[in-house]
Structures are given as C-alpha cells and as structure tokens.
Automatic annotation (TrEMBL):
One of its GO terms (biological process) is cellulose catabolic process. Its EC number is 3.2.1.4. PROSITE patterns: GH9_2, GH9_3. The active site is at H416, D467, E476. Pfam families: Glyco_hydro_9. This is Endoglucanase. It comes from the Eukaryota. Coiled coil: none annotated. The lineage of its organism: Eukaryota, Viridiplantae, Streptophyta, Embryophyta, Tracheophyta. It comes from Punica granatum (Pomegranate).
Length: 500
C-alpha cells in the first residue's frame, strides 16, 4: 500500500493503539461465530455414529454400519461411536468422551440455547451403548468391538466393513478397573444430564454406574494387562487405574450425593493420585480433571476434606498461565498450548475446558481468583487464556487455518478419516473393498465427504500443519478432542451474547 507523503505521521503510541484495536477487531470471533462452531462441534458426533442411524441424522453421507456387533457372542453391542478415523469402538476413549460431553452439558448447557437437544442426543448415543455394554452379562463389561490390528490393515468406510468384529471384555477374572471406572464416571455424569428431562433413564444410568464402579473397585487391575495387544499401543492405560477409581467415585458422588462415595474419596484419595501434581488431562489421565471437579465442593462448602483438591487445582491452573508463579506449560510461537506431537489439540481442548469450569466455580462462589505465588490470577484472566486457545483452534493463528473442519474459510481438506475420505454409500452404492480403499488414503484429492465440526490433531510446536491424510498425528480427528470443546464453545457463545 502506498503512503501519502503529505500526511503528517501519527504519534507512535496512538498509531500502535489504533493498530492494536483494529487487530483485535479483525481477529475476534463473535457470539454468532462461537454459536456456529458449537453447532458444528456437536454435529461431528453424528459422523462418528456406529449402528442404525436415526431418521433425523444430519450428516447424510453416513449410512448404517456394524449392525450385528456382538451378535456372534449373543449380546447386542450395536451403537456407540468410532473413536477417530478408524472403525473400532474403543471403550476407554468412548467412556471418557461421554463423561466430558456430559460435563459440558452440566456446566454450560444453559448457554447452548438451540443446541441443547443435539448435545443431549450426542451424550445419549454413547450412554445407551455403555449401558448395554455394562448390563449384558453379569460380572462383565464389554469394552471393545473390532480388532484394531486387522482394522488398520484396511481403508474402508464403516458401511462396508468386513474386518473381524471381535468383542473384548473385562471380567472378575480379567479385570479392567481403568475402563470400568471411566464407564461408571460416564454413566453417572450422563445421569445428571437426563435428571430433569428423563428421570427414569437417569435413574437407570446412575444405578448401573454404581454397579460398574463396585466391579471396578472390587476386581482391581489394568485392562492393558488383561487385553494387552488389543488395546495397546492404541489406548494403553499408561497412568494405571487409580486415577479412574477416584474420578469414578467423584462423579457418582456428584450425581448421587451419596455420602459413602465421599467416604471412599477421603479414605482412598492419597493412594489414587490426590497428592500428585499432574499438568495434563486426557482419556488416559484423569487426575487434573478430578481435582477441578472436587474443588467445587470445597468452594461451595469450604469443607476441609476438599482443600487439598482446591490447592492442586490452583497449581494446575497456575501452570498454564504465562508469567504466573508455577508456570510450566509450553506454548508455540503462535500461542498454542503444546504437549506432544501426536494429537496435541486434545490437551488444548481439555485444558481450555477445565480453565473455564474453574473460572465458573470461582465466580459462582465469589472468589477473586487463583493465587499463583504472590499474584492473583482473576477469573477474567482465566477466561481470556481459554479464549485464546479456542480462538487459535478456530483460525486466529499464524497459518490463519481453522482446525475445525467446515468452520471458517480455510480448514483441513485431507483429514485422516476413512468415512470422510472414501466416496459415500450415497454417491457410490457399490462396495469398496478393504484394499481398494487405500487409493483414497494416498490420493491428493480433498476428502469428498465433509466431516463437519471435526477437530484434527493440530499443528506442531512451530505452528506448522501438514494437511496430509498420511500424517495422522496432525490430521486425524477424535471424539475426545471435540467433547470438552463443546463446553468451551457453549460458554463463549453464551458469554459473548450476554455482551461480555
């Protein structure tokens, strides 16, 4: 742009102020943007559905799939979600996804407005499946359908699947306290979501949650040991099962207000991770999330037994805030929280969600903020920090790329996802066999089916992103990346529309 030499220059401070304000305007998202992203983040789950699709299915390029899951074992294990870009139903990430979707509705459902029914439907799709998996056979929890080693040898849409649909379970002889306690957490959290709209369903969910938790607690062991190469290295329980037991008990306590779970938390907390400072929250490690969840009781009741959880929650939050005492997180040059090269955005969405939940708990109880050493980080600062992460994902980043498919003018076109990358059954009714599908994996063409709302693994530690189907570390979406983002977007859409 040419500069008119006859204009007198603006004073530098004023010029920088004008540039700053114009930049804020150009990069900020409106309430409408957050509402749009919220709708899409929930719609994504319809693209991950397994089983018989309902008549109101909105992502119409998907069709029915895996309709006989469990039948050769004389159980009905149809339904639920495919975890990511493959066609396996993995129990641990599915249960965690359900817990986080439910928590999103519990905390921020009042800001979801027209999306609340879709959000409840997303919770129910997996809650129904987990209920079946938990009640089909006494003393057993079905935790997986599909052999991942065989599944990964094919590139085929779920509607054509012909890989073995083996069913895997944990039992009294082969325990899986981690996956069972997470399933209990999911059922308990879902019971809160349906408490008013469907009390009988809610009661069934909570009753089942208690039974599954008792099973998890009584027959202790890691499902990675029981199922080995079927769950490892895909969703190996690296953190062990203690964190899930404490998380499961905390959710049942929240759902039931049954004091026996409070006693359990008090008696077992110290051996189940209550004393550990852990600075990430994921499908594997629940410690940070449990502390934020339990800190609510301390803030509301000022109860001594939860003081420890509040202190650890403060340390977790301080670790995320640049410049704060205790800050230990890594950020990319463009400002994105960075934990690891594979599917990094899962840590960004969980951290953003926990930060907003904690800000809500502090504000609701009249607390000034979080003490990080000598300084106090206000709830407003926490919200601002989470908002930066959300905005980065939505396109306010050095690449000007939205990492949510279908949101904004520029988003990933070559995501690592079988159903999205192979022509749909609507457009190509003939079967596309296992090995034939690989031509679509290796094709340079954009995916023919848009998996609206999917959040991919995201950029590297230098903000670089390869829009490449073969780079699954960056280009694969997953249900557990989206689930906490639903809550974060609901909060921001509500806050923006309220004029904050």
């Amino acid at each position: 742009m040419a500069i008119n030499a006859n204009l007198s220059p603006l004073p530098l401070p004023l010029l920088s102020l004008i540039l700053l304000s114009s930049c804020l305007v150009c990069s900020a998202f409106t309430s409408k943007d957050y509402s749009d992203a919220l709708e899409k983040s929930i719609l994504f789950f319809e693209g991950q559905r397994s089983g018989k699709l309902p008549s109101n299915q909105r992502l119409t390029w998907r069709g029915d799939s895996a309709l006989s899951d469990g039948s050769s074992y004389h159980v009905d294990l149809t339904g639920g979600y495919y975890d990511a870009g493959d066609n396996v139903k993995f129990g641990l990430p599915m249960a965690f996804t359900t817990t986080l979707l439910a928590w999103s509705v519990i905390e921020f459902g009042s800001s979801m407005q027209g999306q609340i029914e879709n959000a409840r439907a997303a919770v129910r799709w997996s809650a129904d499946y987990l209920l079946k998996a938990a009640t089909a056979t006494p003393g057993t929890l079905y935790v997986q359908v599909g052999d991942p080693n065989m599944d990964h040898k094919c590139w085929e849409r779920p509607e054509d699947m012909d890989t073995p649909r083996n069913v895997y379970k944990v039992s009294t002889q082969n325990p899986g306290s981690d996956v069972a306690a997470e399933t209990a957490a999911a059922l308990a959290a879902a019971s809160i979501v349906f408490k008013d709209s469907n009390p009988s369903y809610s009661a069934k969910l909570l009753e089942t949650a208690k039974k599954v938790f008792d099973f998890a607690d009584k027959y202790r062991g890691s499902y990675s040991d029981s199922l080995n190469s079927i769950v490892c290295p895909f969703y190996c329980s690296y953190s062990g099962y203690q964190d899930e037991l404490l998380w499961g008990a905390s959710w049942i306590h929240r759902a039931s207000q049954d004091s026996s779970y409070l006693t359990y938390i008090q008696s077992n907390g110290h051996t189940m991770g209550a004393d550990d400072d852990v600075f990430s929250f994921s499908w594997d490690d629940k410690r940070a999330g449990t502390k934020i969840l339990l800190s609510k009781d301390f803030l509301e009741k000022n109860s001594e037994e939860f003081q420890l959880y509040k202190a650890h929650s403060d340390r977790y939050i301080c670790s995320l805030i640049p410049g704060a005492s205790g800050f230990s997180a890594q950020y990319t040059p463009g400002g994105l929280l960075y934990k690891q090269s594979e599917s990094n955005l899962q840590y960004v969405t969980t951290a953003s969600f926990l930060t907003l939940v904690y800000a809500k708990y502090l504000t609701s109880n009249g607390k000034a903020g979080v003490s990080c050493g000598a300084s106090t980080i206000t709830a407003e600062q926490l919200i601002s920090q989470a908002k930066k992460q959300v905005d980065y994902i939505l396109g306010d980043n050095p690449a000007k790329m939205s990492y949510m498919v279908g949101f904004g003018p520029k988003y990933p076109q070559h995501i690592h996802h079988r159903g999205s990358s192979v022509p749909s059954v609507r457009d190509h009714p003939d079967r596309i066999p296992c090995s034939t599908g690989f031509q679509y994996l290796y094709s340079g063409s954009a995916n023919p089916n848009i998996l609206v709302g999917a959040i991919v693994g995201g950029p590297d530690n230098s903000d670089n992103f390869a829009d490449d189907r073969n780079n699954y570390q960056q280009s694969e979406p997953a249900t557990y990346i989206n689930a906490p983002f639903v809550g974060a977007l609901a909060f921001l859409s509500g806050q923006s529309s309220a004029g904050h």
